Every structure is written in structure tokens, then in C-alpha cells.
Amino acid sequence: MEIFKYMETYDYEQVVFCQDKTSGLKAIIAIHDTTLGPALGGTRMWNYASEEEAIEDALRLAKGMTYKNAAAGLNLGGGKTVIIGDPLKDKNEEMFRAFGRFIQGLNGRYITAEDVGTTVADMDLIHEETNYVTGISEAFGSSGNPSPVTAYGVYVGMKASAKEAFGSDSLEGKTVAVQGVGNVAYTLCEYLHKEGAKLIVADINQASVDRAVTNFGAVQVSVDEIYSQDADIFAPCALGAIINDNTIPQFKFKVIAGSSNNQLKDTKHGDLIHEMGIVYAPDYVINSGGVINVADELNGYNHDRAMKRVSGIYDTIEKIYAISKRHGIPTYVAADRLAEERIARVGKSRSQFLQNEKHILSGR
Which residues make beta-bridge pairs with 175? Predict the structure, then answer.
């Protein structure tokens, strides 16, 4: 991989390789863009097949965080860390404390949080060495479990999507097919049930399905049948790449709005569902409640303030649909445009400010 060529092509700012022999730490911090502010993005620990695969994952995820944070209206840029190793076998205290020292060395350019393969306990160890970490234990002033907040963001985004598709944001009487009933999706189902929606659920974990059936009167279908349900709304809350050549021909849904990441297998699939008239809530926008929530920790966490900002996902989704209709483009393209335009505006303003400062100083 020609890393500098890749960075130049996609306009990355910095890649940091972190190694600590004593603890076995091998980490890659990718900082994509800090136009809006310090880069915020989680730390993922995964047993990558190669160092190149780890680098590519860090870069891809960092860019995704730039767009997520920008679209969410946060004054934060995009970054991500991957730690190479098996999260079930290779963790130790020294590793995360060493990593915390590397973060501290960046002096606030990068702020981390938990991600796949890492936990609140891991973030607490990082916090021993730096304050540039979110998602720590509530005892340290953290926001706690982000799942309920993420679920609320998906719920309000789904309501905005229902308004676009059906003319009203009421979900009463609507049938919602929920793929995956984990922590986020279970709380989403709770919101939907309270509003009077009908639920169809599927999950590989039978206990999760049983809980939704018992508590919300949900109808169970198999994981393969969820794509072909006669439902108004499809809420993918488990796997990525589930909007693809095999599943799209089965869709009868008018709306797709769920919490899972990277729902489109390829951009062509976003184009296809747009042509079919399906209202699609771009995943990194509708599932941004979690990052909005942890970002609030940087100001001294206030739950009411965080939830008010998360409720703004409704308005952001509406803006994306308006851009989509105005320019005749798919919503996933409209979301990117919303994020890119915000970054460009702030970048231009900052550049003008620095230029003015330079003129003032040179005139002295």
C-alpha cells in the first residue's frame, strides 16, 4: 500500500503508528480531517490478517467519522484507532495505558472512545494517562451506556423518514421489520411499541427475539425472511452490507431506517433503492446519537443537553431529504454533500480569519 499516495488522494492529515514492546501494543491512529475541530473516533481492537488490512480499516473508519461528526453538527473532525490483536486474549493494563500516553502526546488532536473489541474498562485505563478519551465509567463523569441514546436518535430519524414517505411522522399502526434485537434495537422497539407500531423481528439470538415477542408483542420471522416482509419500514440493526443484489429484489418497504453501519454493500445499491422510491435514512446520520452523546462529555456531560442535540437528528434527516429532492440525487449522496459543505464553509471561514490576522500582524 502506497500510504502517502492514499493519504493525498483522500486528503488525510496524519497517520500515527504506536508500538510498545513491553505490553505488545501495535496501534494505528488515523486522523482524516480536523477542519471542524479535534478528531473524535473510537478505538477498535481486532485480530487483523495483516498490517495492511489494519491500516486500511483505520483509514476507512477515520474518514467515516469525519462525515458522521460533520453531519451531526459537531465541532469535531474524524479519526479512528485500530489496535492489532485478539480482544479476548491479548489485552492487558499496560497496553491501554501505553496507548493513553500516545494519545496524550497528540495534545488534543485526537480524542478516542470505545468501539468494536474495546470496553468502558479499557477506556478507564486510557483515562489513567490522558483526558482525551470519552465513554469512560460514569464515576469519572461519563455519559454511560450509549445504546439508549443511539436508539432514540434512530427513533426520531425514523419518524422524519415516515413523514417523508407517508406524509405524517406518526408511527402508530405502521409495521416495522427490525433486523437484530440487540441493545440499541431493543430500546428502539420499546419506543416503537409505545407509539403503537407493529413489530416484526429477527435475530440469530433466540433469547433476544423472545424478549421482544414477550414485551412488545412482536412477530418472529427467520433471519432470511426479514427482507421480504410486508412492512412499511425496515430497520436494519445488525449486519452491514445488507442492502445488496440479493436482498433488494425482496424489498416491499417504503422506508429503510436503522442503526447498523455500512448498510449499502455498494453505492450502486443506494442508487437502486433511490430509483425504486424507497426513502433511505443514511446510516451514519441516523445512528449518530451515540457519538453526539459522548461528544457532550467534552463539555462536562449533561444528559438533557445531549438528548436535545440527539433529537436534532430529525431535522438533519429532513435536510438530507430536501437536498435529495432538490438535486435529484440519492440520499446517501445528499448526506455526504451536507457534511462536505459544512466542512468547506468552516474551512473557508477559518482560512479567511487567519488571512485577516496575518494582514493585521504584518501592518504593525
Answer: 198
According to DSSP, residue 136 is labeled: -
Strand residues in 153-288 grouped as ranges (E): 175-179, 198-202, 219-220, 233-236, 255-256, 279-280
- Give dist(CA 104, CA 102) in Å, integer: 5
Contacts 24+ apart (CB under 8 A), 50-54: 51/84, 52/1, 54/28, 54/82, 54/84
List the one residue out of 262, 246, 255, 245 whose CA is nearest residue 277.
255
Cβ partners under 8 Å of residue 336, min gap 6: 67
Burial of 298 (0-12, 13-18, 19+ CB in 10 A): middle
Q: Using one digit for the tens of pLDDT, what is the confidence trace for 302-311?
A: 999 999 999 9
DSSP for residue 49: S
Long-range contacts of 339-344 (CB under 8 A, 24+ apart): 339/66, 339/67, 339/68, 339/70, 339/71, 340/67, 340/70, 342/36, 342/70, 342/71, 342/73, 343/33, 343/35, 343/36, 343/66, 343/70
Cell numbers at residue 314, please? 430529525
3-state SS track over 321-361? HHHHHHHCCCHHHHHHHHHHHHHHHHHHHHHHHHHHHHHHH
DSSP at 99: H
Residues 49 and 34: their CA atoms lie apart, in Å, by 30
pLDDT tens profile 30-47 = 999 999 999 999 999 999
**Global pTM?**
0.90
What pLDDT shows up at residue 226?
98
In angstroms, the CA 344 to CA 352 distance is 12
User: In whole angstroms, what is the distance from residue 231 CA to residue 254 CA?
Assistant: 8
Calpha distance 79→83 (Å, rounded): 14
Neighbours of 318 (CB within 10 A): 16
How far apart, in whole angstroms, are the C-alpha atoms of residue 96 and residue 143? 21
User: Looking at the annotation, which residues are catalytic?
Assistant: 80
> Residue 106 has what DSSP assignment?
T
